[in-house]
Queue: 2 jobs
Job 1
Amino acid sequence: MSLERVVTDKAPAAIGPYSQALRANGFVFVSGQIPLDPVSGQVVEGGFRAQARQALENVRQVLMASGAGLEGVVAVDVFVTDMGQFGAFNEVYEEFFSAHRPARAVVEVNGLPRGAMVEVKCVAALPSA
């Protein structure tokens, strides 16, 4: 099995000892993306929806750098600090996944890095060569 690290400056750099994503055996495994602005490295302002949008945009950018795209996503895991934001998350999520409906889990957690309100990770299939 070969593992290839994915790195892009269009998404925030990893804030710990991990990769933005790894390519392996036809799949891309994207690490949890919090709503950091890739330029400033700070959590975006504007509330939950703005944070959800940025986290999903970060996922999109990592996928694009890997050679995959949102259309190849097979599973999404979402972590939120307030399950009361489930509906708001769904509205933002549909901006990224309208017709395509990957498998998904949303879990409420006690806290996330940098005080973020949402974190998103996923697995995507690479397009056939």
Job 2
Amino acid sequence: MANITQKITPFLWFDKEAGEAADFYTSVFKDSSINNKSYYGDNSPLPKGTVLTVGFTLNGQNFTALNGGPLFKFNESVSFVVNCNGQDEVDYYWNNLLKDGGKESQCGWLKDKFGLSWQVVPVRMIELLTDKDAAKRNRVMNAMMKMVKIDLPTLEKAAES
């Protein structure tokens, strides 16, 4: 019997890149692993022996990637937030998730080379955006709206202006 310990698992549909994507994500996130793989058999939509699913874990969060063919594509209506402790962590995840063909967006959003959307966010930004001082929140929001990658020192400066 499978050892399933997580009630809800994100399930990511890829054309035929599920294995490559799982390898990529586990290389970016520390404390990550490939947990299992299943393969297509006879009379399948993809050649026998092609990866069907890959179970993997990123920082304690389980995911499953499926090679389901070209029917569905990722879009920005679903994204994953990477909560970062400081600018160094923002820079690390931003740069690594963009590797080999990712695309920057705005306000800390990006798409990786597979088209999956990520939000790379310093926890401190959330604190500033939820501060009890409305004027401070507005200054931080205005500064953030002009950014592509989040620049925490600039947000801190806006908060204190």
